[in-house]
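Box 3.1 — From sequence to structure: CDC27 family protein
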Amino acid sequence: MKNIVYSIAVLLIVSCNVTNTKFATNSKDYEVYLSPHQVETTSKHFELWNSKIKPDSVQLLSFPNIAGEYNRFFKKTGEITYLKKAEKALVKAVEIANMNKAGYRRALARNYISQHRFKEALTLAEEASNIGGGKTETQSLLFDVHMELGNYKKAEAYLDSIKDMSSFGYLIRIAKWNDYKGNLDTTITFMEKAMAKAESSKNKTLLLWSYSNIADYYGHAGRIKDSYNYYLKTLELDPQNAYAKKGIAWIVFSYEKNGKEALRILDAVTENYNAPDYYLLKAEISEFMNNEVAVIENMDKYYTAIKSEAHAYGDMYNAYQVEFYLNHTEQYEKALNLALKEVMNRPTPEAYGLLAQTYYKMGKYQAALEVVENRIKGKTFEPAILYKAAEIYKANNKLEKVDALKQELLGAVYELGPASKNEILSL
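Predicted structure (token representation):
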């Protein structure tokens, strides 16, 4: 009898401990980072180099320095105009450079990657390779571009060519490669090695990159507390980091189902940060909260930002725009044209996922199935794409394939959002 009582007592203690150790966010952790702030879009460094640029200037060093400052302003504000100004400065540097020609082309290629101008980036990367100099930097760039373009065999070859386990650049790329292959544990192992190198170097740029990316990977792995802590570490280094605040907002929304608090965080972000996709996230949260007025308001803000003549987003928001046309305006022909364009720009599983989703929405189930079977199946582990594939399998009465995906999707509810569980179960 004593043993039974003792066993019950132990079970109660263990149960209490499990309940008490369940992770929860605390607004006191991040409140200080939500305060209104003035975004600085100038600096002594910027003014110094900008003053050297005159009409028909050949002050070569001024242009890459100015481009670097514009790029920094873009990251702080989300304003596309700064990215375009950085492009203009780098184009000028490429035009007039007699030395470091490869380096300036690599810098312009990176700018084009940010603008989703991947084919132009590839051209510049290949030019840099032909010029020579900075071989490892160019091969790293070629890996990055080919990954974006879906040329995975070429990307793997360039990854092999820069193999160096002591290199931060190699470690983050082998992590990305394993993420693409669906090897999340291996991805995290390599990313942790890269983070350790960043910490030993005390390089702020590398630390910010490491902390924000490891936070993402921990979230994918269901390690929500670790994810949250590394977003906070990102903010300790850069209190205005919009990406980290967005990550915390997602945890609050998807893990804790606290839409009101998630919106409060995002409202603070969008006071000074102007990336259109933040409005789409706010619309998603508002929809979960059954606030149709807020959904419409945020969709309007997104559309206004995308179409504003003051902006020049180009192809940066094609994927978002396809979703917008399909799910909110039901302009299926516009969605189809844009999805086909995206496939031409970058024939990745993600782009083909948009095309398959468009055919599905148009009622062209067989066409959607062909895209899934030929361009998506076995080529991606992204939950959002696999969910759409499951919908298409169901529409084509391939129920055994739906069942095969269901369990995997139920393990990705955090990534897909709190509304996804019922949607998955209803497949």
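Summary of the box: The longest helix spans residues 2-20.
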